Amino acid sequence: MKRKLIEVSIPLEAINEQSAREKSIRHGHPSTLHLWWARRPLAAARSVLFAQLVDDPSSFEDLYREEARAQGVPADEIDEWVEDRIAAERARLHQLMTELSDWDNLGNEALWERARQEILKSTDGNPPPIVDPFAGGGSIPLEAQRLGLEAHASDLNPVAVLINRAMIEIPPKFANRRPVHPSAESRTTWAGAQGLAEDVRRYGEWMRDEAHRRIGDLYPDARLEDGSTAPVIAWIWARTVPCPNPACGIEMPLVRSWWLGKKKGKEAYVVPRVENGRVEFSVGHNPAAGPSASEDGTVGRLGAQCVACCTHVDLKYVRSEGQAGRIGERLMAVVAQGQRTRTYVGSDSEHENAARLKNPAKDFAANKLGNDLRRIAPPLYGLNTFSDLFTKRQLIALTTFSDLVSEARERVLEDAIASGMARGNSLAEGGIGALAYADSLSTYLGFCVSRLTDYLSSLTTWASNPQMEILRNLFARQAIPMAWDFAEGNPFAKSSGSLTKMISAIAKSIDLFSGSSAGKADQADAASRSYGDMLISTDPPYYDNIGYSDLSDFFYVWLRRTLRKIHPDLFGAMLVPKDEELVANPYRHGGKTGAQEFFERGFNDVFARARESAGAEYPITVFYAFKQSETNKEGTASTGWETLLEGMVKNGWQITGTWPMRSERTGRMLSVGTNALASSIVLALRPRPNGAGITDQRTFRDELLEELPDRLYEMQQGTIAPVDLPQAAIGPGMAIYSRYDRVLQADGSSLTVRQALQMINGVLDEVLDEQENDFHPETRWCVKWYAQNGFAPAPYGTAETLASAVNTSVARLARSGAVKAGGGEVKLLSPNDLPSDYRPDLDNVVTLWEVTLQTATALTREGEGIETAGTVIARSDGRVDRQAVKDLAFLVFSLAEKRKDSATAQLFNALATSWPEITAVADRFTRTSLNHQTTLDLG
Question: How many other CB atoms sit within 10 Å of the CB of residue 460?
């Protein structure tokens, strides 16, 4: 059985760096097609799929031995030759994966073709179809399709299914076709889904213009101080309740913050004043007179305060008023579009009256919100239905846009037929003609409306910080929170939260869909669906982290209104299915215990079902969030993580790899001084053979000691960060544990997953400690001294005793430049103590410790970096072993973590993760030096 890259070694740091970078990428990213929660980074999904299918070079050891013999390599050198051959081939594949994970290479078709050829080579030209039974936001199926694989997505949630349908099912049907709009851009080539994207722009523009013709008068311009007018970006409202003080009774505003804009020199804030028993509002601009932190706003977690009589008001009163229907709203300010800036003006009757409209039809949104009060707060304040979350003007606008999707569909159909496309069947019937094309365009236009609701509700707020001054969408986090002061955006504006912005973002996303292979998205329960010959790569729900069904109802009611006739299989029910959703929701399952039992039972059912048809040729891969932890007498453990591992082993899976995937850069996570848990773990699993047998705890430990060192060495050949090593080591450790049906303790009871993890961590420490024995005495002394004292001074006698124990002396250590001795004390030189002109080639006594510390310090020292660090390594060639420098970095990182020395940990983590770049500089320096010397000799 050939091992795959995912089971041996991957360029983890490069993948994690690109995953972190993805957070700042917006234009064209599929997250801008439609919001979904906790999407997997595309870089991670793409890399895992590639590594899941491509053979690790160690699988070809016998072939490489034959090559060595054929090339006449001496028998006593064959082992080393084969090892170098494997390392070189692995480095080539790592480089390909590194390039593949880079968002900037998305359009590099030559690179993608190389990746596809590697997959074909490792799958005998017949790669398996990929399926994600918890498809969610669709990262995995989309990347499978980009890699040329047949992609299948399923989910119980209809919103998730529709997102996947729009990404992997529709684009291949109409790939490489011209747009049908008569005014489409004129060009000869339309690759992938670019024609679809162009039509989304054109028909989206028609929708916007037609809507403005019908309801534009509801959105008047703002009148500025100089008498001119300007388009409105947003209206800033405050909710109100009657003051409970009988002597006051004023309609008191509930405001989170009075600030509107904090850009230096252009500050703006709301100024409330009480006139004739009513609060009036104006806008102030003098920062010196602006609200201080203690004066900013009238409501917070501890309650509210009346601006007139200063009475403290408990939130219980606010809730009771809301539930009685007595929460009102007042316009405080208007945000207008200025010359490359925002202009803030006070409220007036014209703008307030423009929003006082009759109740529009809203039966479609009359369903109640979910009852998970941890994440859904509005019902506490009387906002019980989805229609309650929108102003009357917003409801009119959104229903107008929704209606126009149907009208646009008729236009698309007419234009598609006129362009020569046969009418054909509908999209729901599997059509690929004009009718199906009109359905497809309508799906994307429906997304424009659905996405707009995230910015066009009475829970949308205004971000006043200088970097933004924009509408802050409702789902800034994974919840539906209450908003006291809210921003009602102008959907016809050209700024954030407008229909124009939604259309543009969605079109840019569609532009990058390749549609290169077939895709299928269906609504299905992961525990009962058929898997057949498909290979699983999935990102399952995370215990109770997100209530997908309750949150997605917010979008569902609008998508159902707009697209029910086009996707009848998804929008038959009034709301998203909830009872079978695999989330540990205590509100739905009788409390925490019932929720945990439901989740664990459901998870086991899914992977038991998958095991029934799993083949042994490829590992499946599973992403799992490593977040929820509990502390008890046995220590801290992740409930969801242990549930996952227990379920996998119980249902006949062998865990063959675990890789910590991050969406934060490791330097940032280390800088906070924590153990920097990964945002998720990727597991590789193969079906365990039936009748695998039983072993005992002692044998398990012996096998860990025998196999783990080689596995760690393979990992360290890639760009794995030292901070990730303990979590990555779980993979080969659990591979041993899970190769057996049971591991027995001395008393006959089964060794639990938690106990196995503790043993794996213990053996990892032993393996790292044993690496120290391969170092020379001076470095061994430095390692032991740092472990005991760090960079602090300690008595000379203690230092000399330790030196004698490892067969060196303090005097020799001082000559090497590793320590400073004097005044009866010895101190290990810290990074701050080191000179910046280090020349190991001119040093009489060179130690591995000194070279490693000097290299790490040069890497992070201001004004230096990779070039200086590489030069240090080049000049130390022949004096220390390069690989030993990297090995020492891993060991010192581990010691620094134990000492809670985050600065040193970060230093050595950076050294290990930058190793390929450092050695590349070192090789270049060496070549340049040799060429220069050759020139001098010839001269």
Answer: 25
488, burial (CB in 10 Å: exposed 0-12, middle 13-18, buried 19+): buried
Cβ distance 721 to 666 under 8 Å? yes
Distance CA(833)–CA(842), nearest Å, equals 19
Give the 3-state secondary structure of residue 513: coil
d(CA 294, CA 763): 54
Instruction: Provide the pLDDT confidence category of residue 378 given band limits of 50, 70 and 90.
Output: very high
Block residue for tokens 């259309």:
503
Inter-residue contact 888 to 776 (CB < 8 Å): no
Q: In degrees rounded to 5, what are phi and psi of residue 89?
A: -70, -40
Q: In angstroms, what is the C-alpha Rg of the chain?
A: 32
Nearest to 34 by CA among 164, 143, 131, 144: 164
Q: Which helix (H) or strand (E) holds 86?
A: helix 78-100
Mean pLDDT within 308-316:
96
User: Residue 55 contacts by C-beta under 8 Å, 6 or more apart in sequence?
Assistant: 2, 3, 4, 5, 122
Global pTM reads: 0.86
d(CA 718, CA 721): 9
H or E, element range at 209: helix 194-215
CB-facing half-sphere around the CA of 149: CA atoms within 13 A: 29
Residues 6+ apart with CB under 8 A from 266: 285, 341, 342
Residue type for position 168: I
Q: 43-91: per-residue pLDDT in tens?
A: 999 999 999 999 999 999 999 999 999 999 999 999 999 999 999 999 9
CB-based burial of residue 247 (10 Å sphere; 0-12 exposed, 13-18 middle, 19+ buried)? exposed
Phi-psi category of residue 421: left, alpha or beta, with phi > 0 → left and psi -120 to 50 → alpha: beta
Contact between 909 and 896 (Cβ < 8 Å): no
Report yes or no: 154 and 142 within 8 Å, Cβ to Cβ: no
∠ Cα 732 658 742 (to 5°): 55
d(CA 137, CA 131): 14
More confident residue, 87 or 339: 87
The answer to whether 469 and 496 are in contact (CB under 8 A) is no
Handedness of CA 538, 544, 549, 553 (dihedral sign): negative
The answer to whether residues 133 and 529 touch, using CB atoms and an 8 Å cutoff, is yes
Scanning the structure block, which residue is given the tokens 């001795």? 821
Please measure the distance between the N-terminal and C-terminal CA atoms of the chain and give it in whole angstroms.
58
pLDDT tens-digit readout, 896-915: 988 999 999 999 999 988 88
Chain position carrying tokens 């503790």: 758
Q: How far apart are CA 889 and CA 786, in angstroms?
A: 13
Residues 6+ apart with CB under 8 A from 23: 663
H/E stretch holding 538 reads strand 535-538
Residues 43 and 22 sit within 8 Å (Cβ to Cβ) = yes
**Beta-carbon-side half-sphere exposure of residue 783 (alpha carbons within 13 Å):** 28
Average the pLDDT over 587-605 and give the result. Answer: 86
Q: Is 155 helix (H, G, I), strand (E, B) or coil?
A: strand
Here the tokens at position 464 are 């006043």
Tokens of 9: 């070694």
> Which phi-psi region, left, alpha or beta, contains residue 382 (left: φ > 0; alpha: ψ -120 to 50)?
left
